[in-house]
Fold each of these.
Amino acid sequence: MKILTFSAMLLAAFFGIFQSTHSQQPAPAVTPAPAQPVDVTCFESRKGASEVVKRELSVGVPNVKCSPKTGAVLWWSDPFDGTVPMGDMPQMDRIPSGKAVVKPRSEKLALLPSCGIACHNGVGPKFIPPTLPTSKKPTPIPTMAAMVPDLQNLQHGRERIWCLDCHHTTQRNKLVDNFGDPISIDQPQLLCGKCHGDRLRDWRDGIHGKRIGEWASAGKKRWFTCTECHNPHNVQDGARNRGFVQLAPESPPQIPKGMKDASWEKTPGVPH
């Protein structure tokens, strides 16, 4: 009996020493989960209408460089990323096929599917009129005013035009030309040219608007369309009542290292 008791005491003492030693060992280190990268977004031409997410096209080559001051795109590594052929344009036959491209915006317009499918197709909810308006006097619709606040004070045309002068009567997710035919939302220049023929001519000739791409006159270029720079519902820019929303200017470029001023820019590059 004494031998059994001694054995039990010895076993208990050994177990206590083992447990104490084991408890003193440090807990295994927990590797923290890697931080998720935060998407960097900047706009190409008009804030709120032409955002692009910064990403890598190849290792170490981002698709865009964003301005830390204004949030605008400063540089494109591939000016044709995400573009499609412009499509037929009057008096632009001289441009070789595929040399004029645009970036479609219809896929970024969240309300566009609802305009022509969910609401204005004649089979939507009961509160939506199944027939077209009988006059051109706009009727306040709280739902529309909430979705598109600019419509509450539509300044385009200075109260001489209304919604269906620009939007197709039955295909509300499309625009309309002077013949009543639909225009893709990705070709707004065909709509704007109905009234702004002089601006359309300048845009077509490269005087108005923006191009990026190849320098050669017959090279491939991305053309920025009207609504990428202009908000068609507020072209008078509110209280300013003129032009479109002004963009914050970028900081002036730095003088090259080793030069005390920029007087060298006054020297003609080609002697006369």
Amino acid sequence: MTDQTPTLSTSLVDLPKQEWLQAVSTIAEEDGYFQRLGKRHFAAFIEEGTTLLVTFETIQGMHALSDLAQPFGWEMLRDHGWSHLCIASDGDTWFRDKAVYGYFDRLIDDGFFDEFDKVIFYGAGPCGYAAAAYSVASPAANVVVIQPQATLDARITEWDDRFTDLRRGDFTSRYGYAPDMLDAADEAFVLYDPREQLDAMHAALFTRSNVKKLRMRFMGDALQTDLLEMGQLAPLLVAAAKGKLTDKVFAEIFRARRTYRPYLRNLLAGLEADGRENLAIALCKNVTGRMRARRFAAKLSQLQGTGEQANADQD
């Protein structure tokens, strides 16, 4: 890294961890602050506008998902003038740390969230769990969570065998059971693919009168990545912040999947697995009629050939 002071537009890619942390700290402290929270967490706050986005992210996720290796919320700060509070972890911790509890206790005591007109909590997976759990600190906040876990407490989710090594963690004390922590939220949105069984089972535990389920069928198990690649995560959060994330608006946002190849491939595989050959043929015709897609063209020829052979055999 050069001696030049890093800014919000500075790429932090390929920096060693300590240099990366120092750069994030320098940028945040220009108009906010950076604070370590124990050994595996930190908070970085940048004040800009009257809308506050609180994101829960991992250091590894920032490097994998951001072209600049920056917190996702900095994109919203640059493009929409929002203030941003990033709560970050080194690895997947589900943010179960007394230092994090204490930090949110202090924010509540200081009336921090009361300074903003609108507050949005956001996270995905373990970070989605944390966004829901800590949203209780800001009553009337809007919450957007992608594939969140409700808890890792084996007494409730013993059917989830993905994170068995984390079950020994404390999910029963403060800020513990994420669905209950949403009771004070204005609106909460849970995004998941109902064909992903474990994600769907966790989503069911979030059923509340103020929670809307947004189903992303045939998208798979990496929805945050998909939304980023389709360019639709930012519009989703903007709609939530404005209180306009209706079923109709979400359907319009989700139309981006019509040209998103991973979705189209998943849909085709699903139709074939379900034995819905006519729909698979219709899908291939639709895709090849709109875009260059060799795989779908080849599959269309195969499916039509199979159908013609089946008809010939019957004759």
Amino acid sequence: MVFEEGTLVVFIDRQGRHYLQRLQAGGRFHSHRGYVEHDRVIGANPGSTVISSIGEEFFVLHPTLMDYTMNMPRKSGIIYPKDTGIILMWADIFPGSRVLLGGVGSGALLLAVLRYVGPTGQVVAYDVRQDMLDYAAQNLENYLGETPNLTLKLGSVYEPIEERDFDRALLDVPEPWQAVETLCSSLTPGGIVCAYLPSITQVDAFVTAVKQTAAFILVETIEVLLRDWHLAGKSVRPNHRMVGHTGFLVFARKLERPR
């Protein structure tokens, strides 16, 4: 399907730099490699090549979720795709699932979760800052459009919440051990919790709190490292730089709480 006015696209230069744009009649994409008239892209097919005003080549595509996540506006650090992919699989986010998020930030993880749960799923996301909720909502709308199955709530998962029977809980908050009682009361038996934590001292405090409840099993902590490779002719080697530590991921599965 050809690009239409209002379509979100990504311009990619020969060095692999990505630039998000929403196409507008009469609009222009500007970069240090010249400008491209949006009118030249409207009506073109995804994968088209355009030449800028100074002769530089750009590829034009629909942005993947990773393209958008890494280039969207942000007011905070984000959970990076290398961690998001593991969270989605290890926490077993599935179509139709009910998911609780504690901590919204700029909305990176929330974008992926909403895509996975699909229209039959439900996501309830808490944050203590209204400005972050508003910012995340804008990022979500820019990429996903309307999300009627999402509820954004001003509040803290450290305190009791009214919702129950979540299949999964994902926490990106500084002190997730304070949310253990919320997890115990809001997760269904067999449900999975994942906490994203930058430091190992936070991990230790959360794991200790989770184990003390006797309501969780299969408690596991992992770290995801990502290294790509350089392949050019006979030069085949790992790249000198890699995406190292971003955060630790702690997973646990809930039992029926002992009475």
Amino acid sequence: MSQTFQNYIGGKWVPARSGKTFENLNPATGDKLGTFPESGADDLDDAVKAARGAMRMWQLTPAPKRGEMLYKLGQLIAEKKEMLAQAATREMGKILIETRGDVQEGVDMAYLAAGEGRRMYGVTTPSEMPNKWAMSVRVPIGVVGVITAWNFPFAVPTWKIFPALLAGNTVVFKPSEETPEMGYHLAKLFEEVGLPAGVFNVVHGNGKNVGWPMVQHPGVDVVSFTGSNAIGAQIATEGARLGKRVSLEMGGKNGVIVMDDADVSLAANAVAWGAFGTTGQRCTATSRVIVHERVHDELVKLVVQRAQALKLGDGLKDGVEMGPLVNDKQMQRVSGYMKVAAEEGVTIATGGARATGAGLDNGHFFQPTVLTGVQAKMRVAQEEIFGPVVGFVKVKSLEEAIAVNNETPFGLSSSIFTSNVNAAFTAMRDLTTGIVYVNHGTTGAETHLPFGGTRGTGNGHREAGHTMLDAFTEWKSLYVDFSGKVQRAQIDNN
């Protein structure tokens, strides 16, 4: 039964001021899941005012106490994991074992951030002068605006929100309009653990009416964004104009290198999972296979077999291995790249079209697709498709493979399959991506390591891991002089 949802502002559940709403639909079935507020700049302004009003109180709450609240939140998420996973599958489409993992990342991030509450590592260092103490500490920046994509509707928000809150910031969150229910559930969880009113706020709506006003709002000090490169570039430009902190996590065109000494069956399994898991709708999805010519045909054959054997359907049903694309817009995007592939002379070894049949006709299902004959500079090898499509690029050497991998506008994740330790270490050194795997696919990042990429994938920040607080804190240097006299720094006292 469809439910009516509201914004969460200042600890209260409220509709959009305009009274406008939008519908949330199941991408596998087309069923209506709920009605959400179609908010605007005035609703965003209410949320920012609430966040600023709660800021001082939250900053003065000791960091270990903030951490304890996040720890309780992690326990609560773990208790409700199955309910949350099913809700995520209904609105995003990926299969249940994947949304369980999505939710588990939220648990992991809660615990990781909670532990940071008893560290918040600063730096102490000797002063150059006698009887003087010197140290530096992290301090919160203020109000953090969070804008996230729909493909990981629970995990990705937690990568941003939990560290921001732990550091002492308050948060205004705009979930993707494609997956708004997970934003609602996160607010309910915070409400249940007793987070003070105004510390965390949720405003539903689209990018034009909520996201862009958030970027421009003078009361928002930091913008943390996950989404497309085109929108990220606009946010970066506007953030620079306004002089505010911006953290971006954007696209990927991730490559798996398979050398002629690799375990080809293992590589095929990893490629299939990386390319078709989450229906290819991951920033870390495997988009390219850069394969040595001596094992090319064998690897293509195995990946095609795995693609053709996948069972498509509603992610809540047993046995389903791949769900739908998130909406019709994505269907048109992925289908459009099949036309591009044909124009570029690429061979579609399997797939390449909308999937139809029993249980599929009401959803946005696309066939797992393998492209061969791809050249490194083709659009299908350079542009992010964000669907269950993987292209094979044939190479003659490790050096050529590394060069092909690095020559894209993106730099998130890469991988090499080899049994040669020298080749593995060469790849680890020379692959210019933020994440590198050896004998593993391009997906599977762990929360306690930094996540992010180079080039067009981001703007230098990293999420999670020991870097989680960097985007959400300033450094303050402190000096205590107990000499009883004026000591002149930066002056030659010799």
